[in-house]
Amino acid sequence: MTDLYDPIQLQTFLAVAQTRSFTQAAARLGIRQPTVSQHVRKLEEMTGRTLVQRDTHTVEITGDGEAMIGFARAILASHEHAASYFRGEQPHGRLRIGMSDDLALTRLPQILRDFRRANPLVDLDLTIDQSGTLHRRLENDRLDLFVGKRPRGEHEGTLVKRDRMVWVGAAATRIDPSRPVPLVVYPNPSLSRTAMQHALDRTNTAYRSACICRGVNGLIAAVSAGIGVSAMAGSLVPVQLTRLGAQHRLPELGFIDLVLITNPRTEHRPATRALTTAVLASGPSSLAAP
Fold first, then answer.
1. Which among 102, 115, 121, 148 could disulfide-bond with 216, CB atoms 3.0 to 4.6 Å apart, if both were Cys?
2. Which residues is 208 bridged to in the sheet?
């Protein structure tokens, strides 16, 4: 019975599941960390199951917790639809969405399809581009909502997923230590390009831009052809590419944040709120390659 579960507790649980952190969940929701723990504990008492396993370093979602993620999304979506209906705020109008091009390979297009089906009065204006370019469009009031990468050290937006950056190449890729590392890169501004260059500079490793690509399909084609190596969020690596391992002697790239950022001028519109709810409710799995 959906009325057995407190929507606030479900929202808290989803925030923990998405961030894998009680501290980050508290920051996202604007509440104290003990309150997050209390909400999760009460939800576990209600279900009679352990949903989250936590120690001093990690937060893991159990099998029952994974099941609860799906139930929680459905329950919260129903609450949001009911609230919108009775407020007389059925989403309508044009919604300007920016999506980094590599996220087009994830479940986000399916989320947009389901959103459009549930909100037939909303027309979508979808821009696919590099994250750096989309950040500028958002700042210039040319987008209502952006889903993509966030530069290191910045805290704007809602964290959907923190992912490790990995080197990618072809199955036969070999790195010749006597030659500069050939890179396949996006034009600037590019977060992945910057991450590669900083990592190689940090280890005094020579490199060159062997190929500049305008989109993710070009990057996949160039790397698959053996022109060079590149970097991607670990969960976005497509089947055509291979993660490079320790034997390639490339430096660690660190982490990248995949975030949702809304335009403060339009974030209170029903259409913007509805899509924000849909993306966040889908959780980290929505930003992973199939």
1. 102
2. 182
Q: Taking 50 as the threshold, does the pLDDT of residue 18 lie above it?
A: yes
Q: What is the mean pLDDT of residues 73-82?
A: 76
Phi, psi for 259 (deg, rounded to 5): -135, 165
d(CA 14, CA 278): 12
Over residues 151-157, mean pLDDT: 74
Distance CA 103, CA 289 (A): 8
The span from the CA of 235 to the CA of 163, in Å, is 7
Answer whether 211's CB lies under 8 Å from 184's CB: yes
Q: What is the pLDDT of residue 143?
A: 95
- Which pTM does this prediction carry? 0.67
Delineate the domains of the chain, giving CATH numbers in brackets. Answer: 2-86 (1.10.10.10), 93-290 (3.40.190.290)
How far is the C-alpha of 47 from the C-alpha of 190, rounded, in Å?
45
Residue 226 zone, left/alpha/beta (φ > 0; ψ -120 to 50; rest)? left
Residue-averaged pLDDT of the chain: 87
Q: Where are the alpha helices (DSSP H) in the chain?
A: 7-19, 22-29, 33-47, 63-87, 108-118, 131-139, 191-202, 216-224, 270-282
- The residue type found at 165 is M
Q: What's the burial of 14, exposed, middle or buried (CB within 10 Å: 0-12/13-18/19+)?
A: buried
